[in-house]
Amino acid sequence: MRKEHVAELRAGIFTIITLICLSIALFILGSQKGYFRPHVTLKARFLHVYGLQKGVPVRFMGVTVGQVRNIILPEESPCNEIEVVMQVDKAVQKNILTDSVATIKWLSYVTGDSYVEISSKDCTGHIIKDGDTIKGAEPMDYTSAIENGTIAIKSIARFFNKLDEGKFAETLISVSLSLNESITQFRESTGLLNALIYDVRGRLLMDNLITASDSFNEIIAKVAEGEGTLGALIADPELYDNMKSLLGGAERSRILRNVIRKSIEKGKINTTQ
């Protein structure tokens, strides 16, 4: 009888120790996963989740704060958005606002592991409540980007193949040599354009022309601003009208012509004396 009691006692102790170890392991795993911490539920909708799975991390500004609990496909229409249900620690509830945005990102582009990143950029909303839905931003479709890049590379390869087949490089070298010969002949020629560019006298002539052009521009500017007699006549229409009326009157008035004539004769007499 004693042997039977000892065996039962050993079995009981072993069972108790096993249960204790199992409880500790569950507690540790639950603490790491956040099963025993209070949490709130958040939702976000996406047109495409790109392989997102249950249990992947949910991060806020790069810090892991929860995990994805469920992914719900649309029931009424396949064109509707997919709902992603997230479980987030209640301790960070005060940091997540109603204007926050959820984005699907990748932990590794090789394995395709993804997670949900929550960010609050504007910080103008209110603190979220349990069960609220925040905006979901569609991630970049890297598969399409890679496919488009592959197509572009193939197009470039075909282009260079055509250049090689058409002897484009040889044609380009020939054109370059012809251009160099034309420049050399132009420098050695004796024409007017060559003299203006390379001859010293031609350069002096060009400098004089530039100086004369600058002086002419200054005169035109002064006339336009009303400086000088010509400028005053142009800038002051009233002075021009007075001069016109005076000259016109002199031609039409006999008295004024006689006065002018007598003045001239008197001046001649004084000169002879």
From TrEMBL:
Domain Mce/MlaD: 39-119
Any Pfam family matching the protein: MlaD
Alphabetized InterPro entries for the sequence: Mce/MlaD, MlaD_Phospholipid_Transporter
Domain of life: Bacteria
Record-annotated membrane-spanning stretches: 12-30
KW Transmembrane helix (keyword) present: yes
PANTHER family membership: INTERMEMBRANE PHOSPHOLIPID TRANSPORT SYSTEM BINDING PROTEIN MLAD, INTERMEMBRANE PHOSPHOLIPID TRANSPORT SYSTEM BINDING PROTEIN MLAD-RELATED
Protein name, per record: Mce/MlaD domain-containing protein
